[in-house]
């Protein structure tokens, strides 16, 4: 089996398959041999565990996951990588590669069919053009998963792992914290990828709650409130919500006071409970 731990091997495989990187698909492949073992280890892939990987590329991380987990299902959109993966993962009998767009897959069905009796985790070096939509899909679909260990742009990881109510927080911080406890794991320099992206990356782990933080009548209203409050983050929460939802200021003012929120605050100062209270009245 070809271990993909050195750049020479990776370049040789890619050139033999005549592969050109697609910028549009966020193809920055890992070439730093120390990153994948560490990431796979921290993802909790192990005995009795099934792993969903999104975007295996040529299979660098996939190999490490196959070494540890009972089963790995890797979802890759780029059909040109399928023969490459057949070669690089040929020696493993615990891998299934699905040639699909992850955003179009029914992941609940996939878990039910592929991972009976196993704990399930997600581990991926995500394509950066869809980082937030993929993370929100994984969380909003309420999958029976334990954790999501993902490489994302460092800036995005900082935002997601920020404390709710701190300057660095944003709508995505609140949304992710509703479903999981985020944890920053380690940073990865831009030079660890081929081609090298413009910015550094980081690996974070979202420890998914069995139940979301609050019982809400309507999760959608919660996210509408969060997005509206952060839409114009330099403005007061009163102005941001009223202008982004097209509501009368006086009505929003009353709604905020009834929720126990100062209408003159900025969204980044609000707590999870504040957003829950606002969403009940919106
Ligand atoms: N895991 C590999 C690595 O670490 O070297 C590749 C990571 S690369 C950042 C992202 C991968 O996601 C690429 O292989 C790309 O083709 C794939 N991808 C992009 N969009 C996708 C989608 N919507 N569904 C599934 N895979 C996707």
What this model shows, in words?
With 282 residues, this protein is α/β, with parallel strands linked by helices. It folds into 2 domains: 7-208, Vaccinia Virus protein VP39 (Rossmann fold, 3-Layer(aba) Sandwich); 219-281, rRNA adenine dimethylase, C-terminal domain (Helicase, Ruva Protein, domain 3), CATH 1.10.8. 39% of the residues lie in helices and 18% in strands. The protein contains 12 helices and 9 strands. A 7-stranded mixed sheet has the order 4-3-2-5-6-9-7, sandwiched between helices. A two-stranded antiparallel sheet has the order 1-8. α3 links the parallel β2 and β3. The mean pLDDT is 95. It binds S-adenosylmethionine. S-adenosylmethionine binds next to β1 and α3. S-adenosylmethionine (SAM) binds at residues 25-30, 54-57, 60-61, 75-78, 101-103, 125, 127, 130.
SSE inventory with pairings:
Elements: H1 7-16, E1 29-30, H2 35-42, E2 49-54, H3 60-68, E3 71-75, H4 82-88, E4 95-98, H5 107-114, E5 119-125, H6 131-140, E6 147-153, H7 154-161, H8 171-179, E7 180-188, E8 193-194, E9 201-208, H9 219-231, H10 237-245, H11 249-258, H12 272-281
Parallel strand pairs: 2-3, 2-5, 3-4, 5-6
Antiparallel strand pairs: 1-8, 6-9, 7-9
Bound molecules: S-adenosylmethionine.
Residues 25-30, 54-57, 60-61, 75-78, 101-103, 125, 127, 130 line the site of S-adenosylmethionine.
């Amino acid at each position: 089996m070809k271990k993909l731990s050195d750049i020479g091997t990776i370049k040789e495989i890619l050139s033999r398959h005549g592969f050109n990187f697609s910028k549009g698909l966020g193809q920055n492949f890992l070439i730093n041999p120390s990153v994948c073992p560490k990431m796979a280890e921290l993802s909790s892939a192990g005995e009795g565990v099934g792993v969903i990987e999104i975007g295996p590329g040529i299979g660098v991380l996939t190999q490490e996951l196959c070494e540890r987990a009972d089963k790995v299902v890797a979802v890759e959109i780029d059909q040109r990588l399928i023969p490459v993966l057949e070669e690089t993962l040929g020696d493993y009998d615990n891998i299934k590669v699905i040639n699909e767009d992850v955003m179009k897959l029914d992941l609940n069905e996939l878990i039910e069919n592929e991972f009976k009796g196993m704990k399930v985790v997600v581990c991926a070096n995500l394509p950066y053009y869809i980082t937030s939509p993929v993370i929100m899909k994984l969380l909003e679909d309420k999958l029976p998963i334990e954790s999501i260990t993902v490489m994302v742009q460092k800036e995005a990881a900082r935002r997601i792992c920020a404390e709710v109510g701190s300057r660095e927080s944003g709508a995505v911080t609140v949304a992710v914290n509703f479903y999981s406890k985020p944890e920053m794991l380690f940073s990865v320099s831009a030079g660890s990828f081929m081609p090298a992206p413009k910015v550094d990356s980081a690996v974070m782990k979202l420890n998914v709650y069995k139940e979301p933080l609050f019982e809400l009548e309507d999760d959608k209203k919660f996210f509408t409130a969060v997005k509206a409050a952060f839409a114009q983050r330099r403005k007061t929460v009163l102005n941001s919500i009223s202008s982004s939802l097209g509501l009368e200021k006086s009505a929003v003012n009353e709604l905020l006071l009834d929720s126990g929120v100062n209408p003159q605050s900025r969204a980044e100062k609000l707590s999870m409970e504040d957003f829950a209270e606002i969403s009940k009245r919106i």
